[in-house]
Design goal:
By secondary structure, the chain is of the alpha+beta class. Helix content is 27%, strand content 31%. The protein is elongated and about 95 Å long. Bound molecules: FE2/S2 (inorganic) cluster. FE2/S2 (inorganic) cluster binds next to loops. FE2/S2 (inorganic) cluster (FES) binds next to loops.
Length: 154
Amino acid sequence: MATTVNSEQGSSVNRRGFLNFLLGITGLGWLASILYPVLKYLNPPELPEANISSLKVGKVDDIPYNSGQIIKFGRTPVLLIRDSEGTFKALHGVCTHLDCIVQYKPDKELVWCACHGGSYDTDGNNLSGPPPRPLEKFAVNIRDGELYVAKGEA
Ligand code: FES
């Protein structure tokens, strides 16, 4: 009789130990599933910058007058503007105040930052608002009816 009780107690202890082991593994898995994305968010992988010096944007005739669009020059946003006279200009698309993406306002023919109302002329010079510096210029070249944007001024 005593052997049966010990055997049941041993079985109970083994079962309890096994359940505690499963709970521990489950808890560790749950904790890892929470911590892994948080750590990955806090320490993102380094992405190499694409080292491009010139970007083919497209056909000149496809870009309307008095318009602006953000294009990606590698990972750098560039604001490509075609003014009302048809002249192309390309400016760094990030506001010099707090790094918001700027946009072209066709009704006023200027570059505007929606974050704090900063504005620039189409050459990137400051007009109003908090931005402390002008926007960097990019070169625009036309070859065989195709538009290219390059680093540096034209
Ligand atoms: S971020 Fe552009 S005006 Fe503040």
